[in-house]
Fold:
Amino acid sequence: MSHPACLLLCAVALLTSPLSAAAQARWTPPRTPDGQPDLQGVWLSNSATPLERPKQLEGKSRLTDDEVAEFRRRAERLFKSGNSDFAVGDGVFQAVLTNPDRYTNPNATHSASEMVDLEFDNRTSLITDPADGRPTSCRQCSSARRGSSRSVRLQPD
Structure:
């Protein structure tokens, strides 16, 4: 590239960069009708971490680095060979945890060769509160609400 062309390219880059910064400063995220941030869209996750902690890992919030490495080796063996069925969601983590010779899913419509590579990390569940990594049941939630509303009604004015 000639020296004048390089200078011209640098000048154009310098002149357009403040415009893009100003445009970014004016941008505001979209809002829902009630004023909350609008998070609509397609959200993808390539995490193999299950939503709730499996019973086999009860009381264990994190895996060691060696366990994560072993899970990665198992996933490679199970799903890269193409002999297993397509696994989705928590099925990948469950398959790696139980370590079968071949993963089968009666509902699968494809083989594992079409799966997206999933990332294993040290978490044993995406749920972190409550600490047991399992969602509270609706019955527990409704009982707590019912108890708090009863105590409010019983308080004297």
